[in-house]
Amino acid sequence: SSKNNLPPGPIGLPFIGNLHQFDSLAPHIYFWKLSKKYGKIFSLKFGSTPIIVISSAKLAKEVLKTQDLAFCSRASHVGQQKLSYNGRDMIFTLYNDSWREMRKICVLHLFSLKKVQLFSPIREDEVSRLIKKISQQAVTSQITNLSNLMILLSSNIMFRVAFGIRYDEESHESERFNFLLGESGEMLTSFFVSDFFPSLSLIDKLFGNISRLEKNFKGFDEFYEKLIEEHLNPNRPKSMEGDILDILLQLKKEKSTPIDLTMEDIKAIVMNVLLAGSETSAATVIWTMTALMKNPKAMKKVQEEIRKSIGNKGIVNEDDIQNMPYFKAVIKETFRLYPSVPILIPRESMKKSTLEGYEIQPKTIVHVNSWAIARDPEIWENPEEFIPERFLNSDIDFKGQDFELIPFGAGRRGCPGMALGVASVELALSNLLYSFDWELPYGMKKEDIDTDVRPGITMHKKNSDQENISTCCHFINHQFEQFNDFTKYDEESHESRRFYFLFEEAATMMTSFFVSDFFPSLNWIDKLTGLTNRLDKNFKELDEIYEELIKQHLNPNRPKSMEGDILDVLLQLKKEKSTPIDLTLEDIKAIVMNVLLAGSETSAAVVVWTMTGLIKNPKAMKKVQEEIRKSIGNKGIVNEDDIQNMPYFKAVIKEAFRLYPSAPLLVPRETMKKSTLEGYEIQPGTIVQVNAWAIARDSEIWENSEEFIPERFLNSDIDFKGQDFEFIPFGAGRSGCPGMALGVASVELALSNLLYSFDWELPFGMKKEAIDTDI
Ligand code: HEM
User: What is the pTM of this model?
Assistant: First the structure.
């Protein structure tokens, strides 16, 4: 491109621009690769929206400092607008008077250094709870899933800072809050087709994104409402005094701010604090641990520094941290290599301006790739390597003055919560390193530690419960010198968790809505939403597992237990060529996939639904437990043969299959030829959905059809085997489920033993009416 024109960039297509090429899973890496080809400033188009990407410190300074005022607005995004009460917040709102006032309020009243110090007891309390929890896990030989613990720690800290109270971690409220928080994290960055093509908003609806967003918004709003009500109560707990919600409500009441704060403004700011504060700090701690596990020398050095400095004190306090230069350098190096917000939060230009001689139009989205800048070999020596020493004799800091290192952005819209975020990161990390020695789960090498990322504004390490270290750091508590044998924890093994994860992914992929199924030419949308990539990855990883298992099965010295298993039978049939068609290895893998997928999810779901039905219906629970316990007596376990003599138990299972069939629409069929149904002509290639769920609730057939009444099956011949069409949880006919007997056997055995061995009750504080049957 010539000067006074757009910066260079890849050529796009009419209408969609470069959207079909975009990698929404890891935009920082995608942009980084393009910068190598097109330069430190290049351009793209998403639909008709112009995009500029900056990848040098010099240009970052231009955008974030010299010409800050021209580049300090934000672009509109469906998810962000909704969750910020139509941009009444600070992070996602356009640059305008209201943002300026909000920012002043926040900087002055919420994020000042004084406030950061005021919240110090909350951080110290949460971190010491964390250390205690990990110690307990050590004693019981559990692997520590650091990712989960860190996310919980940060969200607990931010929750207390915002609302002054603490939910018990096992409580219903805490779980719900963390679920909502995770959901909003996704919603704020999800690709909404309507952001770029308003006329295609139907697609967002179809994907289910809009209803997910509405649900998330409503869930959070109810939370805020409840907490506001509690804060306004004169008898509120003391701990609520001075928390962020309290400060904001006070400012509103006193009308002491230049703009009158509305309740929606307050909720929007609280949302910012919760979201911006939790994910980012957690991700930074996890990345630091990941980097240290991959670099044992740095790990040793930083632990020595901390332990020497703290001695036997037992815990690191915030004041101690100032005397640990190597520790500080480790954190800087993590912010350099793994900035948790790698392309900052996109800016939008407000007026015509010039960058490197190129003309930038108003309403251009500007991404500053801080991740790429911090790996620029022109600035950093061995940029890909984790070398904290580089910061020991250097003045470079991450505070927004040195544009080669800007994990918190800079300028007018730079992060105002930096001090709060860094305080949490430093305290959590120093204590983790002080209190424990960390090692990888059994069987994992440091080369296996990946640095894959999860999509989202916050660059999280992927928590796929598989190859990741820091998701599962096994540790030795150095104070108690406790060594644990992890090999006995089979289910906790690397392989088991990896397989389980892949498996769940596969189940999701099988039913996800792919735009290209209906509009093949729009397949780039599936790419953009990340579906194609997720699918390819899932396929590849499962394929590797099948390959490995096939190899093990073909080994003459394989374990005895492999003889006669399904894979063994199939390999044998292939070898003997004893089937009418020659089985290929792909046929075998495909069948194994069918068995695994069709067999596990469905049976698990039935057991869960039956327990749900019973807990909601204590009388049925009592009756079925009495039947089982009477029949089994003191034997200690229910065996499969015992089950035949338990008519009420059988009726309970039937009733669960009726109300909660685990494949409610069966598997859709496609017509093969023209045919007639009820006099209507059905064309070949028509998809036919049989709603087994609806049929089993048809009030013309079933009395009180919505109620869980196992008794209805006691004197009835109706069964689910595909002969009684009012009740077809396994389908029927040619493609009815061939695995029914296998599935029912698992369900019956698991369920009867659960009911025989234990009495079940709801978690503390939950009533049976609160049990939802959401799916
Ligand atoms: C390790 C922790 C954190 C990191 C890495 C981080 C990073 C960032 C980045 C990169 C931005 C965008 C800056 C830009 O566009 O130039 C940002 C904005 C923001 N951050 Fe943070 N942040 C962290 C912690 C926090 C905390 C604890 C809070 C508040 C409790 C917070 C509140 C905000 C807000 C409100 C904005 C929007 C500012 C605006 O648009 O005016 N952040 N943060």
Answer: 0.74
